[in-house]
Each structure stands twice: as structure tokens, then as C-alpha cells.
């Protein structure tokens, strides 16, 4: 019983830290920073699962990304375009290619 309680506390702590990070993300970052953080997070997760960290498909629509990041669709698409013009990423529909990971991190 005690080990189950400790496990539940660890899970709750992890969820709290994760949610706190999301609140900080939404409250303190610009639209460009939010999208860059999302792409970096996805890149890290893809790499951890044995896939390419620089080439992947977004499973979310631009509208869903906006909802997740607290942005409007009218902000998400131009933000992706801006990152593309800066040579940071390349987009082709849902296909994302991270061209310059260092610049993406700097954003």
C-alpha cells in the first residue's frame, strides 16, 4: 500500500511540473517562441523513440496547435511562415523539417 502511495505521489508531482511548464510556456512566451518550443519538444520526443529528430509529420492541424499553445489559427500559420523565411524550418503541409536546430533553440 505504501509503495502504491509513493508511486501516486511521484506521478502527481510529475504532472504538476509538466502542467506548470505549460502554464509558463503560455504566459511568458511570444507566439514564435511557443511554436519553436513545441517543435523542439516534438523533435526531442521523436529522437527518443528512434525516429528522425529533424524530419517528422505533425499529427495536429494548425488549429489544434493554436488551441494547444493558446494562439489563434491566424497567428500559427504566419509564425510557421516566419520560421521558414528565417531558414529555421521547412514546411510542406504537415511535414516539418528542422533546418537549423541552433536557431530554433535561440528562438
Structural summary, described in words:
- The protein is mainly α and 107 residues long.
- The chain has one domain (30-106): Winged helix-like DNA-binding domain superfamily/Winged helix DNA-binding domain (Arc Repressor Mutant, subunit A, Orthogonal Bundle).
- It is built from five helices and three strands.
- It has helices at 2-28, 31-48, 62-69, 73-85, 101-106; strands spanning 55-57, 89-92, 95-98.
- A three-stranded antiparallel sheet has the order 1-3-2.
- β2 and β3 form a beta hairpin.
- α3 (62-69) packs across α4 (73-85).
- The radius of gyration is 16 Å and the shape is globular.
- The N and C termini lie far apart (46 Å).
Question: Can you lay out the helices and strands and say which pair or pack?
Answer:
Elements: H1 2-28, H2 31-48, E1 55-57, H3 62-69, H4 73-85, E2 89-92, E3 95-98, H5 101-106
Antiparallel strand pairs: 1-3, 2-3
Helix pairs in contact: 2-4, 3-4
Short description:
The protein is mainly α.
Question: What key attributes describe this structure?
Answer:
107 residues; mainly alpha; Arc Repressor Mutant, subunit A; 3-stranded antiparallel beta sheet; 5 helices
Widest sheet, order of strands: 1-3-2
What is the straight-line distance between the termini?
46 Å
Give the amount of beta strand, in percent. 5-15%
Tell the overall outline: globular
Q: How can the largest sheet be summarized?
A: 3 strands, antiparallel
Helix/strand-derived category reads mainly alpha
CATH topology, anyone? Arc Repressor Mutant, subunit A
The assembly state of the depicted protein chains is single chain
Q: Tell me the total number of β-strands.
A: 3
Average pLDDT confidence is 86
Number of helices: 5
Amino acid at each position: 500500500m505504501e509503495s502504491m502511495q509513493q508511486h501516486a505521489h511521484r506521478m502527481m508531482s510529475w504532472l504538476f511540473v509538466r502542467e506548470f511548464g505549460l502554464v509558463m510556456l503560455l504566459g511568458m512566451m511570444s507566439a514564435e517562441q511557443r511554436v519553436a518550443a513545441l517543435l523542439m519538444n516534438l523533435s526531442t520526443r521523436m529522437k527518443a523513440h528512434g525516429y528522425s529528430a529533424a524530419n517528422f509529420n505533425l499529427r495536429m492541424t494548425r488549429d489544434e496547435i493554436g488551441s494547444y499553445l493558446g494562439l489563434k489559427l491566424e497567428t500559427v500559420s504566419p509564425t510557421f511562415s516566419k520560421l521558414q523565411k528565417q531558414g529555421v524550418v521547412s514546411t510542406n503541409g504537415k511535414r516539418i523539417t528542422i533546418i537549423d536546430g541552433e536557431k530554433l533553440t535561440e528562438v
